[in-house]
Design a protein that fits this description.
Layout (H helix, E strand, L loop, with lengths): L2 H35 L9 H21 L7 H25 L3
Helix pairs in contact: 1-2, 1-3, 2-3
Length: 102
């Protein structure tokens, strides 16, 4: 692999990690919207949290892509990078909530 291919693969991992996190966010947004429509909360949408969450998914996807460098690019690899963004973001956010002060 040359430098261009490596950079492209890592960028692809970042984007797919963000896509995996976006899939995870859809569930959370639906839950928050349902709570807001029942009157449990007024301010249900937090743009800053949404952007940070997507960035965390991108970081997870980047790390996943680095670990998969040299793999043949196929359907399985693409789905793996999406799953890494989904699960990795969940892990990183859970770790941050437990270990970092609020």
């Amino acid at each position: 692999m040359n430098v261009f291919e490596i950079t492209t693969f890592i960028l692809l991992g970042t984007i797919l990690g963000m896509a995996g996190q976006a899939a995870r966010m859809v569930v959370g947004l639906k839950k928050k919207y349902d709570e807001a429509s029942q009157g449990k909360t007024e301010d249900w949408f937090n743009t800053k949290q949404l952007v940070i969450s997507l960035m965390i998914g991108g970081v997870a996807g980047t790390l996943g892509a680095i670990s998969l460098l040299g793999e043949e690019l196929g359907k399985q690899t693409l789905l793996t990078l999406i799953a890494v963004g989904y699960a990795g973001a969940d892990f990183i956010e859970g770790f941050m909530q437990k270990k970092l002060p609020q």
